Amino acid sequence: MVDIRLNATINGRKVSRDAKPHLRLLDFLRDDLNLTGNKEGCGAGECGTCSVFVDGVLMKSCLMPVAKAQGAQIDTIESLAKSGELSVLQKAFHKAGASQCGYCIPGMVMAATAALRANPFADREEIKERLGGNICRCTGYQKIFDAVELARDVQNGRLPATALLETDTADGEVIGKSVRRIDAPSKVSGRLKYAGDMTMPGMLYVQVLRSPHAHARIVSIDTSAALAMEGVESVITSADVPGKDGFGVFVHDQPIMARDKVRYVGEAIAAVAAEDALTAKRAVAAIKVVYERLVPVFDPDEAMRVGAAVVHDYAPDNITKHIPIRVGDVEAGFAESDLVIEENYSTQAIEHAYLEPEAGLAYVDHDDVVTVVSPSQNITHHRHMLARIIARPISKVRFIMSPVGGGFGGKEDMIYQGMLALLAMKTMRPVRLVYTREESIISTAKRHPSRTTLRMGVMRDGRIRALAMRMVCDGGAYGLSTEGVMRKAAILAAGPYNIPNVRIDTFGIYTNNTPSGAFRSFGALQTQFATESHLDIIAERLGLDPFEIRRINAMRDGATTHTKQKLGSVSLMRALDAAEQASGWEAGAPAVRGPTRGDLAHDDVRPSVTLGARFGADDTQEAAE
Amino acid sequence: MARKRGRGMAACWYGIARTATIDRAAAWAEIDDGGSAKIVTGVTEIGEGILTVLAQIAAHEIGVKPEHVVIGDNDTARAPEAAHAGASRQTYMVGNVVALASREARQRLVDVMAEMWDVSAETIRTGNGEIWAENTNHRISMGEAVACAKNRGVVPIGSATFGTDTTGIMDGKGGDGSGRPWQAYVFGCQVAEVEVDTITGEVQVLAVWAAHDVGRAVNPQGVEGQIEGGIVQAIGQALMEDYQLNDGHTSTSGFAKYILPTSLDVPRVNSIIIEDPDPIGPLGVKGIGEPAMVPTIPAVMNAIYDAVGVRVFDLPATPEKILLAMREKARREATMAMQAAE
Is A568 exposed, middle or buried (0-12, 13-18, 19+ CB in 10 A)? Predict the structure, then answer.
């Protein structure tokens, strides 16, 4: 294809450059002009972090072919703080604590700038609507709304500009004060370089071939056609791994690329390093793999049955980990209970959806140190594992943690760093890999889906006598953090309550699904969802207020946990009191009191949203529309 | 009225730092020329605000302003190990060890000044970029003090390591799970207020009151940010997010199909920070990243039940599931009414 000549005004400067016609505006800005402030989060116009102004209109630059920008005036996040002086809105983001990982923030700042340009007096609800096309995974949006409201008020003169300044620490005390985030200026201005923003001279581009099958034997891999292509520097498979292959947080059961067989759809099989990303993609398509399909197993309960397909030979029962907790005599506890209730609960697989897809850069330095720069949540452990995999002394392996654009546990796995290191060693050139959103979703860990059976026995006065829980989790194709998740899930399963008889079993099971791994709240979310739902069911049956049943059973100072650990101070009663008072909770048994409650719709409750297809809005809301 | 409101609550507990193993972290500190502080430790921001927290801690311990603290990059070849960024451990493990390293660096400087001024080291105070001896007129800037130290051949540095007194749990065959998995525990409680549209089945979470023990809040705005973000992630799991697999192939490989909470889905979060200091670490801090999202889902499910009398046992509580459950409930009640009439 012939290059196009693009003439445009970008951040106030005339630009006249040749560009590949297949590029999106985002690629042209980031790769050709090195304007990396705006990020790519999804490549499909859904997350908004790539948002720029085109002739003053907010546009998602991942959806715009570069040729469409011919003659246009384009402003990126870099245009807002040109000489380093942040705009009022950027200062407000800094002051309000509106940035966390920062990866969505360039687009969020652009969208918020557009919102206040469209309506300088927009109220909070209108601000929310105008930011509706931008996803943030860290902040919960509240501080972003606060920031936009602060900027609005400063711009309108309702608040002085000093409202944007640092909290006063003149008394010398800095702990306990909301000191502004030191990393915020670089995030609100787009100056912070994430791994996918970094380049090195001579850098090669990496692409990965992934499995289309959930369970198959690899009969052969033919990389000769890919290797013969012009611009291709190296193609690697598991056969190129020089050391003892295998990574994982607890059990090292996952090769850096599939070895002998594939265990899930999306598993890496081979990787290519080439002069540009397009050549690397073409080379990936030229790799020929012959598979022999194997019977897969997708359901963890089926996987536990005798005769089920075996995912890993070392675990013929497909059990990655079983964690037991035992206190007292649980059957005797049920026998003496006045009321025994059993229910089943289940939770789904959840994607971390950090806005920054996986990315990394690797090189071999002047001292022969294999160096990997990536948003890894655990460079210490990754270094240990990589040294063994590439058979180098640990002093010759170096990990640098780049700024993490959201992790939530999902970046604890060394899912791609091994391939990068190997390609850097093979080519002796810097190599960079940036995942697409789709690659990130199909190939990286999820929150463990769970099935839980919970049985609880209580006395009429609300005291819990016995608790039995069995949770089966789908750990997917590889172990990753499953063992630890099962452990934490079990230890915390029964909640912060004194229960004399406890039997808990959590099972992490191998299947041919996308692997499950570490995810913020690490198993405790699944088990405590069941326990805390169950307590309300029991409270209704006993006619007890939900706070009351928890207070009756609450651990107090000096309590002994279900793992027989003696605690010191226990703040549970303080937390219960504080939430009850702050919410103005009206006491009563949880027996569908909603229609008659007197504690609803206080000032600290947001109005309900009336956008979209809604029916039967009540009179007040109709009046407001 | 087609939209019904309700409230629900749930409590939680959580362990801080690595589970059922000994956790550890290390840091180096230097009081640098000009009276700034340099902290090197194996930690990088993952968005939670740890760099700011560490700057505040170092500033507090050394006696400089937070903006005069520089934090080195996380690099296995250049920084001491602080282990991983997860397990709600950074403020606890890395915060505490930075405090200890900063104290040691400060002590080096204080010892030099005590000798120079011929006063007891115990009478020396630092704060706000200055160092002085109580009940004397000795008071100079930290920058001047660093120059004094260096003129005497002393570079004011410190280093520290911080480990936990924890054990594995007995989870082998026949084990009862006993052990000391953590040395710091936190507790929390949340109340949720929801509105359920009985025609569409859609649930809106309008407010959450969240009370969480964090030990000691180094940066209250940062703590709120963790609570707000955690609650919204949990609401995603409670109501909409669902990674779907069909024979191992996902049908939710983008954000058009994998639905995430946006600005219009989020409740007003009212955070209440509780400080029950950790007695073991030097700072009293604990953690908040993960516990913030534990009680949200059951609180929301309990609130939906309060509003419309149906309980969702299998997440997420999509409009379809709510409607189906409401229809089943109506059918059940109609049957019971008929039976009662007979």
Answer: middle
List b or e across A199-221, with b for residues whose CB sees 16 or more CB atoms inside 10 angstroms. eeeebbbbbbbbbebbbbebeeb
B contact residues 122-161, partner A, Cβ 8 Å cutoff: 127-128
Q: What is the largest CA-CA distance in chain A?
A: 83
Rg (CA), chain B: 26
- How many Å apart are CA A389 and CA A368, to the nearest integer? 16
Task: Give ∠ CA A89-A92-A96 in degrees, rounded to 5.
Answer: 145
Q: Cα Rg for chain A, rounded, in angstroms? A: 28
CB contact under 8 A, A137 and B44: no
ipTM of this complex: 0.97
CA B184 to chain centre: 13
Catalytic residue among B275, B290, B328, B342: B290
In this predicted model, which residue has the larger pLDDT, A602 or A402? A402
Nearest to B52 by CA among B65, B63, B42: B65
Q: How far apart are CA A477 and CA A390, in angstroms?
A: 23
- Residues 242 through 281 of chain B touching chain A, CB cutoff 8 Å: 242-243, 245, 247-250, 252-256, 258, 260, 262-264, 266-270, 272, 274, 276, 279
Confidence of residue A166 (pLDDT cuts 50, 70, 90): confident
Domains of chain B: 3-16+184-333 (3.30.365.10), 24-161 (3.30.365.10)
Q: Does the annotation mark B290 as catalytic?
A: yes
**Spatial contact of B286 and B186, defined as CB atoms under 8 Å apart:** yes
Q: How many angstroms separate the Cα of B328 from the Cα of each of A107, A154, B333? A: 44, 53, 9
Using a CB–CB cutoff of 8 Å, tell me whether B329 touches chain A: no
Closest of B70, B148, B45, B58 to residue B100, by C-alpha = B58
Per the DSSP assignment, residues forming a β-bridge with A324 are: A505
Of A46, A554, A579, the CB nearest to B272: A579
**Residues contacting A31, CB < 8 A, separation 6+:** A23
Rounded Cα distance between A482 and A449, Å, is: 11
DSSP 3-state percent helix, strand, coil across chain B (nearest 5): 35, 25, 40
* pTM score of the predicted model: 0.97
DSSP A587: P
Nearest CA in chain A to B302: A533
Domains and CATH numbers, chain A: 4-79 (3.10.20.30), 88-166+184-192 (1.10.150.120)
pLDDT digits (tens, 9 = 90+) for A313-338: 999 999 999 999 999 999 999 999 99
Cβ-based contacts of B195 with chain A (< 8 Å):
608
And the tokens for A227? 């290797």
